[in-house]
Amino acid sequence: MRGPARHDGEAGLTDEDDRQRAARVFDALGAAYEKAFAHAEAHHRSLEWLLGRLAPGSRVLDVGSGTGRPTAETLARAGHRVLGVDVSPVMVDLAARQVPQATFRCVDVRELPLEEGSLDAVCVYFSLLQMEREQQSSLIGRLSRTLRPGGSLVLATVPLDVQGVDAVFMGQPVRVTSFAGGDLVDVVAGAGLTVLAEENVLFTPDHPEAVPEPHLFLCCARP
Q: Which of the four, 60, 120, 162, 171, has the lowest number of CB atoms within 10 Å?
């Protein structure tokens, strides 16, 4: 995930390994994660783009909803029906208390029943980085199919060509897999989505152990 890569990770890890590792990291970070990313202007710009496309009362899925801020809170305050999912019980508890207008569930999105064409929008902010590339591609395709025609998907990641490397993020050990920016655009296009806006920024989280990291935001639509 965010932070400098250290060395190759172990092979043969399961979805349950990924889930437990991610839950431990974000249980430990809790509200510190929200504080560290509160000044992420590109994140807020992508939310403004999304708000401009949504009809009143739209159904939105927030994948990796964290503390609920800013994504679920911004969308719920605008009157949209938001479901946030996260594997971290600590994050889900924080989100439920901070954003009571939305609904939150502690569940791996890969195990969440999703009906095709049932959503107006999906948000995926930095929540794929602890999955293998095949899993990321498969999930993006599945999320694309949950969108109604004309629906929107906003995706943010750290655009690096890395697979299964160990790193340190805000003092926590993480194992990261990601795509280079152009490769991720290809994955999104292969899922049947059109990229309508793209922004690359260099961002430094507000944390004493943080380092500058590249961020890529893709604003996409299902034709």
A: 171
pLDDT digits (tens, 9 = 90+) for 147-180: 999 999 999 999 999 999 998 877 778 889 999 9
Q: Do 140 and 187 form a contact (C-beta atoms < 8 A)?
A: yes
What ranges in the chain are assigned the alpha helix state H? Answer: 15-29, 31-37, 41-51, 71-77, 89-98, 133-146, 181-190
91 close to 137: Cβ distance less than 8 angstroms: no
- CA dist 221 and 223 (Å) reads 6
**Angle at CA of residue 25, ends 95 and 27, nearest 5°:** 35
Q: How many CB atoms lie within 10 A of CB 223?
A: 8
Q: How far apart are CA 159 and CA 11, in angstroms?
A: 22
CB of 86 closer than 8 Å to CB of 92: yes
pLDDT of res. 204: 93
What are the residue ranges of helices labelled H in 159-209? 181-190
Closest alpha carbon to 32 in 174, 210, 212: 210
Tokens of 62: 């927030």
Whether the model clears a pTM of 0.90, i.e. scores above it, the answer is: no
